[in-house]
């Protein structure tokens, strides 16, 4: 029988992999430069921050964002609800010289209430590992990073519109669930950061006590995440005085999250919330989730250096012996080791190619003449052997070869 007195706050708050976070104050000032809160040692992080649009006061906000990602040492910073096109975000992001930005397209349809726009800021030292990024919609972005040892990380940034736009709300949820299933199928470690406009604290009692209701369509996103082993470490609001993520009419909500898939949650350390209200930056507070850096330890050295080192180890033949070989043998030896090194170190991606190359006209003519001469030589050799077979049909046959 289900216990109606189940302590949901305790369940959410207590992590399976706790660390000592005495020095991590949840009430820390967002841009405190005098005594910045230390990050957990040997960690990287993913943050989520709804910036409430960058069209108004864009230069001021981007400067404040720069302070945030720099002082808090953000590794992957999800910025939600920018209301900007990718080119506009790229222009503004030049002020963040240590970061590379990837942005979604912007939906400016007249019938859409929320334009959306999401971006992911990645430290330059990690951005070199980006393999591909995809704007799945104006409100959903995915970025793939490949690391040594065939480790693949996919980070989603999402903005789910409020239920006042129910159609767009449902459409974004369905698109996100589909994208998560695809990431799982492809074996990606993956995380989702963003503004869900959904209250997790209201869902937990349903999930534990009323699973039939929790599985209904209206709750399908949280039900999918929890049923499939995803974890969110965002601190719980124990009272009205607690520091929450979203403040509206003196009410505190948790609607911004960083969710980690079952593969990635093994590296989870903790999550913290920082207060952005004192500077009127946004009515949302950023949440930062920390992970053990051992997951990205291979990112310190670029893959191309590992590739070169691997090739050097494979090419262990004596230079004297190598110099004595024929040029063809040298090429075959190097080719075999380069292919072996690429398969062992470099990320693999299967691609399709339905392109049929078109030959230059002169080359087509040359090939046609070459084939004609081959046919004529063949016929001539037969005539030499069987001269009695010569007839007027040969003229027509050779003309047919040419055309």
Note down, in words, how this protein is organized.
The chain starts with 7 loop residues before the first helix and ends with a helix. A six-stranded mixed β-sheet has the order 3-4-2-1-14-13. A six-stranded mixed β-sheet has the order 5-6-7-8-12-9, with helices on one face. Helices cover 36% and strands 20% of the residues. The chain is α+β, with helices and mostly antiparallel strands and 403 residues long. The chain is elongated and about 100 Å long. The N terminus is likely disordered. The protein folds into three domains: 293 residues, Endonuclease/exonuclease/phosphatase (Deoxyribonuclease I, Chain A); 43 residues, no CATH class; 42 residues. A hairpin with a 2-residue loop joins β5 and β6. The longest helix is centred in the C-terminal third of the chain and has 25 residues. α9 crosses α11 and α12 packs antiparallel against α13.
Layout of strands and helices, then pairs:
Layout: H1 8-13, E1 43-50, H2 58-71, E2 76-80, H3 86-92, E3 99-103, E4 118-123, H4 124-127, E5 130-137, E6 140-147, E7 151-159, H5 166-185, E8 189-195, H6 200-209, H7 211-214, H8 220-227, E9 231-232, E10 246-248, E11 251-253, E12 256-260, E13 268-273, E14 287-292, H9 303-314, H10 319-324, H11 327-345, H12 361-385, H13 393-402
Parallel strand pairs: 1-2, 7-8
Antiparallel strand pairs: 1-14, 2-4, 3-4, 5-6, 6-7, 8-12, 9-12, 10-11, 13-14
């Amino acid at each position: 029988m289900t216990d109606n007195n189940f302590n949901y706050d305790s369940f959410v708050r207590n992590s399976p992999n706790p660390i000592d976070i005495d020095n991590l104050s949840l009430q820390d000032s967002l841009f405190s430069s005098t005594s910045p809160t230390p990050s957990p040692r040997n960690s990287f992080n993913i943050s989520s921050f709804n910036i409430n649009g960058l069209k108004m006061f864009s230069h001021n906000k981007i400067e404040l964002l720069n302070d945030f990602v720099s002082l808090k040492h953000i590794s992957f910073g999800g910025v939600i609800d920018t209301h900007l096109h990718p080119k506009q975000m790229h222009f503004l992001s030049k002020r963040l010289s240590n970061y590379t930005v990837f942005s979604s397209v912007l939906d400016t349809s007249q019938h859409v209430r929320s334009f959306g726009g999401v971006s992911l800021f990645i430290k330059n030292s990690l951005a070199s590992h980006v393999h591909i990024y995809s704007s799945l919609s104006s409100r959903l972005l995915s970025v793939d990073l490949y690391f040594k040892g065939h480790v693949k990380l996919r980070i989603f940034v999402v903005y789910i519109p409020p239920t006042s736009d129910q159609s767009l709300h449902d459409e974004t949820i369905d698109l996100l669930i589909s994208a998560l299933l695809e990431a799982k199928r492809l074996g990606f470690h993956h995380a989702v950061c963003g503004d869900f406009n959904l209250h997790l604290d209201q869902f937990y009692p349903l999930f534990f006590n009323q699973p039939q209701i929790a599985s209904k369509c209206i709750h399908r996103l949280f039900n999918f995440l929890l049923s499939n082993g995803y974890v969110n470490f965002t601190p719980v609001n124990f009272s009205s005085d607690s520091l929450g993520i979203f403040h509206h009419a003196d009410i505190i909500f948790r609607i911004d999250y960083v969710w980690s898939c079952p593969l990635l949650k093994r590296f989870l350390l903790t999550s913290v919330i920082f207060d952005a209200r004192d500077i009127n930056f946004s009515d949302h507070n950023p949440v930062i989730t920390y992970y053990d850096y051992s997951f990205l330890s291979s990112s310190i050295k670029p893959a191309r250096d590992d590739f070169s080192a691997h090739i050097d180890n494979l090419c262990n033949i004596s230079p004297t012996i190598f110099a004595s070989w024929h040029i063809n043998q040298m090429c075959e030896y190097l080719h075999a080791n380069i292919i072996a090194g690429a398969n062992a170190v470099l990320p693999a991606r299967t691609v399709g190619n339905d392109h049929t190359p078109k030959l230059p006209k002169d080359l087509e003519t040359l090939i046609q003449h070459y084939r004609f001469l081959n046919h004529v030589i063949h016929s001539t050799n037969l005539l030499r052997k069987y001269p009695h077979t010569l007839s007027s049909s040969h003229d027509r046959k050779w003309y047919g070869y040419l055309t």
